[in-house]
Amino acid sequence: MKKISVDHLARVEGNGGISATIDGKVVSDVKFSIYEGPRLIEKLTLGLTPEEDVSMSPRICAICTLSHKNAVLRAMENALQVEIHPKSYLCRELMHMGEMIESHSLHVYYLALPDYLGFPNAIAMASDFEFEVKIALEMKHFANHIMKVLSGRYIHGENPIIGGFGKFPSREELLFIKNRAIQFMPFVKKTVELFCELDYPDVPEQETVYACCEPGNNKYGFWGDEIVLSTGEKFFRDDYKNLTNEYVVSHSYCKRSRYQGEPYSVGALARVNNLGDRLSGETSKMYEKYFNKRWTVNPLFHNAAQALEISYCFERIVELVNEILEFKEDPEPVAYTVKNGKGTGLVEAPRGLLIHHHEVKDGRVSNVDIVTPTAQNAEDIEKYCHTAAQKLLDSRQEDQIKPRMELVVRAFDPCISCSAHMAEVKHVPKGNWKTKLKQITEQRSPVFIGVGKPDFRDDASGIKIAEKLRDLKLHDVWLESEIIRDHQLERYNKQHTLIFFDAVDFNEKAGKITVLSMESVLNHSQLSHKFIPFVSNIKNPNMLNNAYVVGIQPESVQEGTGLSSSVQKAVNDIINHLNN
Amino acid sequence: MNNGKLKIGIFELTGCAGDALLILDCEKELLDIFKAVDIQVFLMASSEVTDEKLDIALVEGSVSTEKEIEELKDIRERAEVVVAIGICATVGGIQARFTDPKEWENKYKEVYGDIEMTHTKAVPSKPIDAYITVDTYLPGCPIGKDQFLNLFTRVVKGNLPERYPRPVCVTCKYNENDCLLNKGIACLGPLTEDGCGSICPNHNVPCFGCWGPVEGANLTSEYHLLQEKGFDIEAIKKQMANYSGTKLVEFFKQLKKESK
Amino acid sequence: MKIVKLKKENLFPFLEEISKEADLWAPTKVESDRHKFQAIDDLDQIDIEYTRTILPPRKIILPPTINMFQASDKEYKEDFSHVSKKIIFGIHPCDLHGLLIMDNFFTHEFYDPYYMESRKNTLLLGHSCWPDENCLCKSTRTHIIKEGYDLFFSKIDDTYIVWIGSSKGDDLIRAKEDLFEEDISDKDIKKYTEWGDERDKAFQTEINFDSLRDLMELKYDDPLWKKVGNACLACGSCTNVCPTCNCYNIQDRPVLGENYSEIKRCWDACTLENYSEVAGGENFREKRSDRLKLWYTHKFQVYITEYGKPGCVGCGRCISTCPVDINVKTVGKSLDGEKVDSFWNRLDKEVTK
To answer: How many domains does chain A fold into?
Structure first.
């Protein structure tokens, strides 16, 4: 067994790594890991006053601090039933544009572009691509200026407060921002052309579900009170858990999310895929020109989507300033009384959907739930890396696995520090299948499940093992049909290990046995469909961490009965091994 | 590589990455920084990493896992000078606010449940000087650009870093703000180290204390002043503790004794 | 001394004219609750009906940080970029007295070019005022002014009586002579003296500064100092807002990417902890009470010996600034044996240092 790993992912914001474990011809395990320690932000904020919470919870992350600020303010203002003045609303949107441009321009030019141009970093790129490096710097500088003017400072500004702003920007400051935005337009167009015309490799292309805020009024935008999915489904803000379902995996302090058992993606690409047809102006023209089917299946187009959004932001800034200037007076912050309440705030951070849920009881914050974009993307990052690694392995390009995985991870622009709760690799137990199986059966009480179709030759191997184990009077043995019909898995909890037996095609000699973690199976496009019915049957998603598949390489899965001899031998070996 | 330039490493432990980001934000000066020194490790900016000896290590973030303790000790061995940057490194940051290890354990369980982490074990967050000797400190949440460039330039040019801690009130007065305490607003300016430019009071927002406690801060007086102004004791204590990491533990112990 | 008259409506045309040659500074209102001196682009920014600004006008002569010179191993380059032609309009008598004390200090023993170059290029246009409860200038006898200004504007109803205090002031008037009237009527004089009497009566606070000089010495070990020391937040605000404080620190700032350093001069405050720290880390005024004693000794005693008047001009800024009520009023009265109601008096806590 071999492990390819990038221990310290460079040029992502925060401290993390990615690794792939290769077992023969199968990528058995891919882990996106965060080494950042736990910060317990959601607990730190408990007992604070709403004002302190608004100051502290954005500290979860310096990179998207203003997205967090907007999200916590939206949540808290919902909880305390504060209705802010339209001028405050517009100024917050302007502030958000600053963060979007700063984050996107830094990411596409400084963190992603060096990969495509073959440099270790942006500084090394500077001599050959001076123009690009300079534009990026100036854009970022302008964006920082917007953030400073509106929020008070570049990182962790405190000017936005519950009920509005401590202080509004002056007319002169706003006009400066508008005029500067107009000056940037030609460079913005070049940026979109550059990133939409890059040659993005087609590994790893794969379907996924995209989620983002529904801004309403058929507009493009970065916040709303509903979540919209690429499947067309919508959820109201308070029902966000229908989408996210956070759970913890053992290799990361970043919590994870799945939608109906499947990974999903959030971020610029999700927004452009879900809402791109609502864009207007120049941005819309460029969307029409560049958008195509590949954007919906290839995460590398995140960079193209980010460039498109930079253009959207610049155009929107001009409109926003005009709208803000209509209000001559600066409204005082809306007065409020601190009462009991719960509120959810949905915001599109640069990296995607950010959810803040805050509850106030007796004047103090009593419950906080924060779901960050990277936490939601973690599963898709692994899925796409797995797909890429497997495809490259299949086409004998093993040396490409490492750089390609880095490319994929970077495309998602993971913000590791904000994933607050994120890690290194959980190794599949070392050794051959026997030692692995021994280890996992000894950890907790094992539950055995036979999977497969009895009438399709070697596909019956899983069922055969289960039936035999029952004959041997082992406890907790089930057949595929029983669990689905009778929801048998609901009775088990984290004290148990689920062990599935099945015929698995992993390009090996017939009869070869392998032990895979359920996570790696779910990340594997050809294998996952088989197991999703079981996984969705599991109440506690944490149990996924304690689920394994014992696979036998089949010789034939044609219609018919009787196992091939090599597979029959494998079945006997497994039974004997467990019976001892 | 030996070009006579100082070898620098910028390291990120647990935190929001704001300090490293701020260094990247020194747009105008960034090229000068990269020209002036030989940056050996700066993961946020470059994929090149070495394990050579370093002249200066800048460390951001608090120590929150066993692995980080090892990493930090390794950094100390590699580097001549270690600078703690940002309040997570200097005082422990917001995540070090649990002054009682029991409290931390309980909260940890509430977030992560009983899952046993396979990659590294979490420990209660602490400032880096809980594990290694630190040569100089640069507080801030995030650090201030001016203060950073000043320290960086001094060190690079072979001067000792110059530290001149003073409370936020100094700059706040230069900016001609009215004292918020006099308006009955709970402002932590007098207890908090300066460097932010009194950004919150400039916007009519009280100081939250995000630079950490300033040396010689009169905690007792401010605590009783706020109490006299009608704030409840628990609220004051919480507010004072929010950004002071592990540094006010003694003061809170003292308060506890007094109230008995 | 020459005295002329100016109708209220002629003030702005006059200021308009003189600001062509120099930067005009004047009090402006900031966010409805405070005033500060600012460089004026638009005369409508001026709000002359103010009581006190947060910082005194000395910040215009010497801002909190200036660059004194650049130095490398080969070269030394002086920097007087903080010096430019300025006119400050609207300074009250107390602040004019403050600047007189500063002028004295910076020329008395050692001539300070950084202060004096800037000062010589600045014209001072005073303005009359009305006291509030924190004004102590009658006690320090700085409520009236006879010298130290170029022009002084006493506002009586819709007219200004303009006192010309220097030849430079006279030049200003001559630049727009037709705006002014020469003859001051008996009626005007009567109105002015009546206004003066009324104003004298409006002062609400009296402190006996004459006795404070001795009391400072007699009560050097009074428990009062411990009490103020316990309460002092050591924020330096009393010092930074004082019109007569003049301490500074010098910092070397090497410049990245260049081979020279900038030598900066920054305001400092003796009430801050690091002020008395010397090489090796020793601090000979580590205690807040010791630092406060130093400050009050300067205000109440040393200046009288050196310059014949107290180091306090009664502007009341420390009174409106200090959050724990340590100010010339409470400390002065307390030294004088009066029991004062103040936070520092109420705080019954021992604080180390």
So the answer is: 2
